[in-house]
Amino acid sequence: METEIFNGGIVWNGLGTITNPDAFLPASAFEFVATADFALCTGFDNIFNPNNEEFDYLPVWSAIQGSVKVREYLNANPGAGVKLFLYTPSIGVGNPEEWDWIVILKN
């Protein structure tokens, strides 16, 4: 049985909304490590990239790699990669300021 972990609408020249999950916690809700080290992962898997665009995932990873939850995931799954995709709730004359990278870490 498959479980839906994300659902968000995409609107032509408009703005879709995320319907699942109900809400995301802000970055300030997460604890970050006190060290300045940089945690590496084994790679990135862009799970929704229909145009096979090339992206620089390092800025996305840099923003979250210091989270205690991310470090716990890496310690528990040393060979696992990171799954992510760029959610674009607007297309056509889309506004990149409204787009978000969704990062999925699963044990």
What does this structure look like?
The structure is a single chain. The relative contact order is 0.25. The protein has helices at residues 58-64, 68-76, and strands at residues 7-8, 11-12, 18-20, 44-48, 82-87, 90-91, 100-104. By secondary structure, the protein is an alpha/beta fold. The model has no long low-confidence stretch (mean pLDDT 90).
Which descriptors would you attach to this protein?
107 residues, alpha/beta, 3-stranded mixed sheet, two-stranded antiparallel ribbon, 23% strand
Approximate strand percentage: 15-25%
- What is the arithmetic mean of pLDDT? 90
Number of helices: 2
Order of helices and strands: EEEEHHEEE
What's the arrangement of secondary structure elements?
Layout (H helix, E strand, L loop, with lengths): L6 E2 L2 E2 L5 E3 L23 E5 L9 H7 L3 H9 L5 E6 L2 E2 L8 E5 L3
Parallel strand pairs: 2-6, 4-5
Antiparallel strand pairs: 1-3, 5-7
